Amino acid sequence: MTAVRELDGSEAGGQFVRTALTLSVLENVPVRLEHVRGNRPTPGLAHQHLAVLETMAELCDADVSGAELGAETIEFDPALESTTDATGWRGQERGHLPGGEYAVDIGTAGSVTLLFDTLLPLASVLDSQLSVTVTGGTDVKWSPPLDYFRNVKLPLLRRFGLTAACDVDRRGFYPNGGGRATLHLAPSNLEPIDLGERGSPAEIRLYSVESASLADRDVAHRQAAGALERLSLEDTGIELTERRESTVSSPSPGSAIVLRLDHGTGIAGWSALGERGTPAERVGEDAADAANRFLERTGERAPPVDHHMADQLLVYLALEGGRLRVPALTDHVATSCDLLETFGARLDCEHDEAGETALVTVESTVDA
């Protein structure tokens, strides 16, 4: 009988819960999480975390306890059928996850993209295509906007073997949510991550979206104009290859902008959400300011990915090995590394001389 992994979330947030559940399925081992979201003002499972737990349980037909709002202790046992597979992601016994079609309603403006992020690594243990349609918030605070997920994260992960796509039926901004999107995930042979340095910046793509209720104010156009003026591309030599301004239906008024930079070795992205009282031009400028800070860091130790992507890529690094230069060893990155090591990953973090970035390497894959 596989021993239960005992995990303490007293110093972590929702990302800790999501990653722990993903690793539980990938390793096919039960977990017990105590002090869930212990460092948040309102600890325990909120709607979006409960939706992730219930979705993962349904996919695996898992045994679960603590699946209720506010729960601070949860137990999750995927109990997948296992087989010995010498070419599997661990090179040894692993679970096989059946595909299928599922529908999830978060019930609030809880993040659709964070639920999708939890599911993506499962492509490495899928037996057949998995499609999950989620209703909730597509562009909300504290999570990647939908255009970042579709146009930055998925294209980058496809470079390393992921087969995935995302269809959008409706956008959902805060506070009503009500957006609906579908993640299509196919069995994938993931490859080692190789993002140790940044190549020369090549092109910028821009995605600006507004709800139909804001169309008469030209919010999407003004966001894009604000971003491009602040970027001053004519001074950088970087070409704007795509500029997409969209008006979409949504139960709530809202807007978002995403910038994507393609460079020699990878993809980076930045985003900003519209807020009541904030001029649309300023929203675009905020995204551009983040991009400019990224571009200011040059040389062989310049990070190839933005700081949000750095944290999200660690699980793939642990699964298949490789190297990843992160912009900073943030609390999120440190917590993720500690969690991955609990599951057997062998991570090595080497700071540069100025202490501004860190190179995270994995010489061997996760091991039970």
UniProtKB/TrEMBL annotation:
Binding-site list for ATP: 117, 308-312
RNA 3'-terminal phosphate cyclase domain mapped to chain residues: 11-343
Sequence ranges assigned to domain RNA 3'-terminal phosphate cyclase insert in this UniProt record: 197-295
Annotated localization: Cytoplasm
InterPro entries: RNA3'-term_phos_cycl_insert (IPR013791), RNA3'_phos_cyclase_dom (IPR023797), RNA3'_phos_cyclase_dom_sf (IPR037136), RNA3'_term_phos_cyc (IPR000228), RNA3'_term_phos_cyc_type_1 (IPR017770), RNA3'P_cycl/enolpyr_Trfase_a/b (IPR013792), RPTC_insert (IPR036553)
Designated name of the protein: RNA 3'-terminal phosphate cyclase
Similarity field: Belongs to the RNA 3'-terminal cyclase family. Type 1 subfamily.
Enzyme Commission number(s): 6.5.1.4
Encoding gene per record: rtcA
EC class of the enzyme, as a word: ligase
Hydrolase keyword on record: no
Primary subcellular site in the record, as a coarse category: cytoplasm
SUPFAM superfamilies according to UniProt: EPT/RTPC-like (SSF55205), RNA 3'-terminal phosphate cyclase, RPTC, insert domain (SSF52913)
